[in-house]
Every structure is written in C-alpha cells, then in structure tokens.
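Budget justification aside, the reviewers requested a transparent look at the raw inputs and outputs of the sequence design task funded under Objective 1. We therefore reproduce one unedited record. The lines immediately below are the structure tokens for a 262-residue chain.
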C-alpha cells in the first residue's frame, strides 16, 4: 500500500501536531514527508491537490486529500499501527475534546498579542492571553487536579497544545509576557511537562524566536515586512547562523542585515 504523504512546513505548529502524533505512535516512517517553503508561492501541483487553499498541513492518502491538523491527527491515529493516542473510552474522549475545543481561542490570543504593533493595545491583549491560560487552569483543576497531563500520559490534547506552548516562547521574548506563578500552578505544571516531552522536540526555542521575528512585527505566513527583502522564515541562511533578533518590536523593523538574512 502506498504511504500517505504529509505536505508540511517544519516550523508550523499545526504541522508539528502531526509530527508529535507520529512520534507518539512510533510511526515516523509510516508517512512520506514533503517540506513546503512558506516563503515562496505554493507549487501548482500542491494547489491543485488542495483546490487552491494554501494552509498546511495537508495529508494525501490513497483515498483522497485531508486538510486541517485536527482531522489529520484523528485519521492517522485511527489508521496507523502503534498505541492509540486519542482516549478510547467515550467519556474520556469527550473530556479530551472539551480541552481541545479551547485550543482555537488560546492560539488566536497568542498570535494577536505577538503580532500587535499598537502599544495602546498591549495591555488588553495581554489580559486576553492571561484569560485563556485561566480557562486552561480551570479546566485542568476541574478534570485532574493532582495530575500532570490531562490524563495519566501525554495524549491527543497535549499533541494539540504543545506546539502552541512552544510558539508562545515568542510572547516571553518579544512581549515580556510571563505566566504568573500564583493562580496558574496546574497549567504551569502541564505546560512544563508538555514542553519537555521526548515526542515533542521537533523544534526548539532559538529556532522559533528567530523564524518568528516577522510575526513580532505584524507580518505572518512568510510575507516580507516593509523595508526588507527576505522573510525571517527563509531556510537559508540557516537560523543557527543568524544573530538573535532584537526585541524592540514596537520601535522599528530590523533590517535583513541585522537579522542575518542578507
Ligand atoms: N486550521 C489549520 C491551520 C493551519 C495553518 O494556519 N497553517 C499555516 C502555517 S502555521 C499556513 O499554512 N499558513 C500559510 C497559508 O495559510 O497560506 C490547521 O489546523 O491545520
């Protein structure tokens, strides 16, 4: 049988969800990977597969094309060998779904804050982010107050949230946003265990902070900010060879040279 093909962007959190699931199942090689460069127009063949949409990940199976990371996670969990990552008991699966249902607003709040360039909006956006963490704190205290993960091990909800916890390193670096110690103990414990889980090490902090510089100045998805000729998401020069980006995102947009992109 032909392997499914995952078209993905390595630094993309939605794509990382799928990589984590494959690692959790011990099925990294069960899917062929096609790396897509977010800084150039999508290849026509890929656009034809997706009927013109550009959002990734996309999974091409023997039966057809699947879009949306959550859909792909559930499909691969159901069809590949290895341990089930989704909870098997109906009630537990429903609890898992309730937590996953919080991921969209959580993600949007973090991206709105990092991409903001209006200093006057900073405080309301920080408050909105904190509110999202409060929802997670409340949920975990409700469902599993003494535990670390939602259930006894890193599962589907963790595969969904961990890439966002990693991207939100950009909130600490570019916004000085830290989760307060008091009142957030349970979500902090969850987040720390998620971040250090062996199945979730596809990207690291330095890579994220360098690649996501453009998001911090309000420009997403591989587009080029004003005054620059290259996106911070370009593959070369490799992020390891680039200097750490400046943090003063409200003052100015750093040049290609300053970011090591020239
Ligand atoms: N809801 C989608 C979101 C995927 C998404 O936003 N992917 C971004 C990369 S992080 C993307 O492909 N951006 C480029 C584009 O949309 O053209 C999912 O969960 O798969």
């Amino acid at each position: 049988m032909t392997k499914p093909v995952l078209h993905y962007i390595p630094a993309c959190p939605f794509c990382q969800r799928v990589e984590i699931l494959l690692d959790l199942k011990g099925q990294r090689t069960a899917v062929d990977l096609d790396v897509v460069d977010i800084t150039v127009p999508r290849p026509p063949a890929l656009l034809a597969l997706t009927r013109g949409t550009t959002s990734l990940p996309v999974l091409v199976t023997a039966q057809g094309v699947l879009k949306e990371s959550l859909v792909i996670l559930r499909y691969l969990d159901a069809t590949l060998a290895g341990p089930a990552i989704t909870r098997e008991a109906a009630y537990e699966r429903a609890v898992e779904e309730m937590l996953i249902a919080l991921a969209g607003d959580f993600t949007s709040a973090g991206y709105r804050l990092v991409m903001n360039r209006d200093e006057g909006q900073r405080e309301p956006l920080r408050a909105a982010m904190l509110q999202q963490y409060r929802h997670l704190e409340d949920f975990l205290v409700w469902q599993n107050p003494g535990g670390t993960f939602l259930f006894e091990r890193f599962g589907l909800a963790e595969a969904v949230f961990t890439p966002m916890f990693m991207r939100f390193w950009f909130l600490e670096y570019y916004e000085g946003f830290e989760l307060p110690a008091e009142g957030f103990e349970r979500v902090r414990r969850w987040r720390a265990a998620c971040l250090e889980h062996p199945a979730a090490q596809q990207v690291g902090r330095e890579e994220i902070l360098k690649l996501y510089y453009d998001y911090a100045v309000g420009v997403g998805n591989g587009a080029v900010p004003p005054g620059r000729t290259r996106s911070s998401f370009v593959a070369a020069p490799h992020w390891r060879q680039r200097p750490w980006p400046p943090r003063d995102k409200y003052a100015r947009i750093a040049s290609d040279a300053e970011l090591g992109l020239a």
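The beta strands are 5-8, 32-35, 58-60, 65-67. The chain has a mean pLDDT of 97. Computational costs for records of this kind are itemized in the attached budget.
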